[in-house]
Design a protein that fits this description.
Elements (H helix, E strand, L loop, with lengths): L1 H24 L2 H28 L2 H44 L7 H14 L6 H15 L5 H13 L3 H6 L7 H19 L3
């Protein structure tokens, strides 16, 4: 039962990695297909978890619940990233049109937004100014009618959640999956303790 669940979780994690890889490469159609596969794998993991819920024990049910939470968070984050990537393309295309229409570097508000987005992306995720900076930028994007409020939110959520390069290196080898890996490890350790009869 636990092995079946872990297998389903690992299949989900693999499909999520494929989706993330497509997003990193800018392959949005590939990412969309991979996200559909990821949804299917999450259903398999949820079905396997229901058996654990019914049969226990309580500690393993609890650790499995946390792992299910990580699956839900992963789906949300990758869906937001896909929306953010599409939104960024919209802004970049608008910036190219602006550049053709405005000969001078002055009075190019879309170019200023793109520059601010690059600054936001470079900020450390623990920087206390990052959230406020992102909120101000979001208002600017909506005021310029570049994106809907929901698309702007997805873009800024993604940019404010992404790790800076130094943070990504620090979290090697698990990188963006560090939290997922930690929760999976907690589940495995709880299952081992139960099998060994440890308190």
């Amino acid at each position: 039962m636990w092995i079946e669940y872990l297998g389903a979780v690992d299949e989900f994690r693999l499909s999520a990695s494929v989706a993330a890889g497509h997003l990193a490469d800018g392959d949005l159609s590939g990412a969309e297909s991979a996200l559909e596969e990821m949804h299917s794998r999450s259903v398999g993991a949820t079905d396997a978890y229901r058996k654990i819920e019914l049969e226990g024990p309580g500690e393993i049910v609890s650790k499995g619940y946390a792992l299910q939470g990580s699956i839900v968070n992963t789906i949300f984050e990758l869906e937001q990233e896909l929306t953010a990537a599409r939104s960024m393309r919209v802004i970049e295309e608008a910036g190219e049109r602006e550049q053709g229409e405005v000969p001078s570097d002055q009075d190019r508000p879309i170019a200023a937004v793109l520059s601010s987005l690059r600054e936001l992306r470079a900020m450390d995720s623990h920087d206390p100014d990052r959230i406020e900076y992102g909120q101000q930028l979001g208002l600017q994007i909506i005021t310029l009618s570049l994106l809907s409020a929901s698309d702007a939110s997805a873009l800024l959520f993604t940019y404010s959640q992404q790790l800076s390069l130094s943070e990504a290196v620090e979290r090697y080898p698990h990188g963006r999956w560090l939290r997922f890996h930690e929760v999976r490890t907690d589940f495995v350790q709880a299952a081992r303790s139960h099998l060994d009869g440890s308190p």
